[in-house]
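Hi P.,

Sorry for the delay on this. The queue was packed all week, but I finally got your sequence through. Input first:
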Amino acid sequence: DTFKVQTLFVKPPGVGEVRVQMKYATFSPHDSLQHAYSSKAEYPYLAGYDGVGVVDEIGEGVEEFDKGDFVAVFPVPGNRNLSAKSNVSDHQAKAINTSIWSISKHLQAYSDDGSIKGFRGVGTWSQLAVFPSTHLLKLDHEPTISDAGLGSVLATGLLGPSKIFNVEEGSNVAVFGSNSLGLTLARSLKTKKPGSIVVVGAKEDQDLFESNC
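Then the structure:
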Protein backbone atom coordinates (compact mmCIF):
# COMPACT_ATOMS: atom_id res chain seq x y z
CA ASP A 1 0.00 0.00 0.00
CA THR A 2 0.98 3.62 -0.43
CA PHE A 3 0.43 5.51 2.82
CA LYS A 4 0.04 9.24 3.21
CA VAL A 5 -1.12 11.66 5.88
CA GLN A 6 -4.16 13.71 4.97
CA THR A 7 -7.22 15.39 6.47
CA LEU A 8 -10.41 13.33 6.29
CA PHE A 9 -13.99 13.79 7.41
CA VAL A 10 -14.76 11.67 10.48
CA LYS A 11 -18.48 11.03 10.80
CA PRO A 12 -20.40 11.24 14.10
CA PRO A 13 -21.00 7.79 15.61
CA GLY A 14 -24.13 5.97 14.46
CA VAL A 15 -26.26 3.42 16.27
CA GLY A 16 -24.07 1.11 18.34
CA GLU A 17 -20.91 3.06 17.50
CA VAL A 18 -18.37 5.07 19.49
CA ARG A 19 -16.04 7.81 18.26
CA VAL A 20 -12.60 7.63 19.85
CA GLN A 21 -9.83 10.20 20.02
CA MET A 22 -6.84 7.96 19.44
CA LYS A 23 -3.85 8.49 21.74
CA TYR A 24 -1.54 5.67 20.66
CA ALA A 25 -1.65 3.09 17.87
CA THR A 26 0.70 0.38 16.73
CA PHE A 27 1.35 -2.05 13.91
CA SER A 28 -0.57 -5.29 14.46
CA PRO A 29 -0.01 -8.72 12.89
CA HIS A 30 -3.54 -8.35 11.52
CA ASP A 31 -2.41 -5.43 9.35
CA SER A 32 -0.16 -7.75 7.35
CA LEU A 33 -2.33 -10.86 7.59
CA GLN A 34 -5.27 -9.10 5.95
CA HIS A 35 -3.21 -8.69 2.77
CA ALA A 36 -1.79 -12.20 2.78
CA TYR A 37 -4.91 -14.22 3.59
CA SER A 38 -7.98 -12.02 3.62
CA SER A 39 -10.26 -9.99 1.40
CA LYS A 40 -8.91 -6.61 0.40
CA ALA A 41 -10.63 -3.40 1.33
CA GLU A 42 -11.67 -0.87 -1.25
CA TYR A 43 -9.15 1.94 -1.45
CA PRO A 44 -8.51 4.29 0.21
CA TYR A 45 -9.15 3.08 3.76
CA LEU A 46 -7.89 3.68 7.29
CA ALA A 47 -5.38 1.06 8.42
CA GLY A 48 -4.69 -0.06 11.96
CA TYR A 49 -6.14 -2.77 14.18
CA ASP A 50 -4.61 -1.94 17.57
CA GLY A 51 -4.76 1.28 19.54
CA VAL A 52 -5.91 3.06 22.69
CA GLY A 53 -7.65 6.36 23.26
CA VAL A 54 -10.45 8.34 24.88
CA VAL A 55 -14.15 8.18 24.06
CA ASP A 56 -15.02 11.39 22.21
CA GLU A 57 -18.70 10.77 21.45
CA ILE A 58 -21.14 7.87 21.80
CA GLY A 59 -23.88 6.85 19.40
CA GLU A 60 -27.46 5.81 20.01
CA GLY A 61 -27.94 2.58 21.92
CA VAL A 62 -24.47 2.49 23.46
CA GLU A 63 -24.79 2.08 27.23
CA GLU A 64 -21.49 0.54 28.31
CA PHE A 65 -19.35 3.61 27.57
CA ASP A 66 -19.39 7.30 28.51
CA LYS A 67 -17.60 10.29 27.04
CA GLY A 68 -14.12 10.49 28.54
CA ASP A 69 -13.72 6.75 29.13
CA PHE A 70 -10.31 5.28 28.36
CA VAL A 71 -10.61 2.43 25.87
CA ALA A 72 -8.57 -0.09 23.90
CA VAL A 73 -9.55 -1.14 20.38
CA PHE A 74 -9.40 -4.80 19.42
CA PRO A 75 -10.30 -6.79 16.31
CA VAL A 76 -13.28 -9.12 16.66
CA PRO A 77 -12.74 -12.67 15.37
CA GLY A 78 -15.48 -13.91 13.10
CA ASN A 79 -17.28 -17.24 12.86
CA ARG A 80 -17.68 -17.67 16.62
CA ASN A 81 -21.08 -18.63 17.97
CA LEU A 82 -21.44 -18.39 21.74
CA SER A 83 -23.96 -20.57 23.51
CA ALA A 84 -26.72 -18.89 25.48
CA LYS A 85 -25.48 -20.92 28.46
CA SER A 86 -22.05 -19.37 28.29
CA ASN A 87 -21.23 -16.96 31.11
CA VAL A 88 -19.50 -14.56 28.75
CA SER A 89 -20.86 -11.07 29.41
CA ASP A 90 -23.56 -9.74 27.10
CA HIS A 91 -21.12 -7.21 25.65
CA GLN A 92 -18.46 -9.85 24.95
CA ALA A 93 -21.01 -12.25 23.46
CA LYS A 94 -22.35 -9.51 21.21
CA ALA A 95 -18.82 -8.79 20.05
CA ILE A 96 -18.16 -12.37 19.02
CA ASN A 97 -21.59 -13.30 17.66
CA THR A 98 -21.81 -10.17 15.54
CA SER A 99 -18.79 -11.47 13.59
CA ILE A 100 -18.06 -8.03 12.22
CA TRP A 101 -15.24 -9.40 10.09
CA SER A 102 -17.74 -11.24 7.89
CA ILE A 103 -20.18 -8.37 7.31
CA SER A 104 -19.66 -7.09 3.78
CA LYS A 105 -20.45 -3.46 4.53
CA HIS A 106 -17.33 -3.24 6.67
CA LEU A 107 -15.20 -4.06 3.63
CA GLN A 108 -16.24 -0.80 2.00
CA ALA A 109 -13.99 2.19 2.42
CA TYR A 110 -16.71 4.84 2.32
CA SER A 111 -19.89 5.22 4.35
CA ASP A 112 -23.10 6.44 2.77
CA ASP A 113 -22.33 9.95 4.05
CA GLY A 114 -18.96 10.02 2.28
CA SER A 115 -16.75 9.53 5.32
CA ILE A 116 -13.82 7.16 4.99
CA LYS A 117 -13.85 4.01 7.09
CA GLY A 118 -11.39 1.48 8.41
CA PHE A 119 -10.92 -1.98 6.99
CA ARG A 120 -13.42 -4.41 8.57
CA GLY A 121 -14.74 -1.80 10.98
CA VAL A 122 -11.42 -0.81 12.53
CA GLY A 123 -8.86 1.84 11.60
CA THR A 124 -6.75 3.09 14.47
CA TRP A 125 -4.19 5.09 12.48
CA SER A 126 -6.19 8.28 12.80
CA GLN A 127 -6.63 11.10 15.30
CA LEU A 128 -10.36 10.39 15.44
CA ALA A 129 -12.00 7.11 14.46
CA VAL A 130 -15.47 5.56 14.74
CA PHE A 131 -15.77 1.94 15.87
CA PRO A 132 -18.59 -0.48 16.67
CA SER A 133 -18.85 -0.49 20.47
CA THR A 134 -18.09 -4.22 20.42
CA HIS A 135 -14.57 -3.41 19.22
CA LEU A 136 -13.78 -1.56 22.46
CA LEU A 137 -12.74 -2.50 25.99
CA LYS A 138 -12.90 0.03 28.81
CA LEU A 139 -9.57 0.59 30.57
CA ASP A 140 -9.25 1.50 34.25
CA HIS A 141 -6.28 3.80 33.68
CA GLU A 142 -5.15 6.52 31.30
CA PRO A 143 -3.60 4.70 28.34
CA THR A 144 0.12 4.82 27.66
CA ILE A 145 2.14 3.87 24.62
CA SER A 146 2.75 0.43 26.15
CA ASP A 147 -1.01 -0.22 25.97
CA ALA A 148 -1.20 0.41 22.23
CA GLY A 149 -0.66 -3.24 21.31
CA LEU A 150 -3.30 -4.71 23.62
CA GLY A 151 -5.79 -5.32 20.84
CA SER A 152 -4.31 -8.50 19.41
CA VAL A 153 -4.45 -10.30 22.75
CA LEU A 154 -7.69 -8.87 24.15
CA ALA A 155 -10.06 -11.20 22.34
CA THR A 156 -8.22 -14.27 23.65
CA GLY A 157 -7.64 -12.80 27.09
CA LEU A 158 -11.30 -11.89 27.52
CA LEU A 159 -12.83 -14.99 25.98
CA GLY A 160 -10.68 -17.64 27.63
CA PRO A 161 -11.72 -17.24 31.28
CA SER A 162 -15.43 -17.27 30.50
CA LYS A 163 -15.97 -19.42 27.44
CA ILE A 164 -13.21 -22.01 27.69
CA PHE A 165 -12.29 -22.37 31.36
CA ASN A 166 -15.62 -21.34 32.91
CA VAL A 167 -13.90 -19.67 35.86
CA GLU A 168 -16.22 -19.33 38.85
CA GLU A 169 -16.19 -16.79 41.66
CA GLY A 170 -13.91 -17.85 44.50
CA SER A 171 -11.95 -20.41 42.47
CA ASN A 172 -8.16 -20.43 42.30
CA VAL A 173 -6.54 -19.86 38.91
CA ALA A 174 -3.01 -20.30 37.55
CA VAL A 175 -1.80 -18.34 34.52
CA PHE A 176 1.25 -19.90 32.83
CA GLY A 177 3.15 -17.17 31.04
CA SER A 178 3.93 -13.60 32.06
CA ASN A 179 3.83 -12.14 28.55
CA SER A 180 1.32 -9.60 27.21
CA LEU A 181 -1.37 -12.26 26.85
CA GLY A 182 -0.75 -13.50 30.37
CA LEU A 183 -1.14 -9.98 31.74
CA THR A 184 -4.35 -9.43 29.78
CA LEU A 185 -5.68 -12.79 30.92
CA ALA A 186 -4.86 -12.04 34.56
CA ARG A 187 -6.60 -8.68 34.41
CA SER A 188 -9.70 -10.08 32.76
CA LEU A 189 -9.78 -12.90 35.32
CA LYS A 190 -10.25 -10.30 38.04
CA THR A 191 -13.73 -9.58 36.68
CA LYS A 192 -14.63 -13.21 37.55
CA LYS A 193 -13.68 -12.55 41.22
CA PRO A 194 -11.50 -15.63 41.77
CA GLY A 195 -10.11 -16.52 45.17
CA SER A 196 -6.55 -16.08 43.94
CA ILE A 197 -4.58 -15.72 40.70
CA VAL A 198 -1.13 -17.31 40.51
CA VAL A 199 1.07 -16.22 37.59
CA VAL A 200 3.95 -18.49 36.56
CA GLY A 201 6.58 -16.62 34.59
CA ALA A 202 9.81 -14.66 34.56
CA LYS A 203 10.79 -12.99 37.82
CA GLU A 204 11.62 -9.74 36.00
CA ASP A 205 7.92 -9.39 35.10
CA GLN A 206 6.81 -9.44 38.74
CA ASP A 207 6.74 -5.66 39.18
CA LEU A 208 4.77 -5.24 35.94
CA PHE A 209 2.10 -7.68 37.09
CA GLU A 210 1.86 -6.25 40.60
CA SER A 211 1.48 -2.69 39.30
CA ASN A 212 -1.11 -3.61 36.65
CA CYS A 213 -3.16 -6.25 38.43
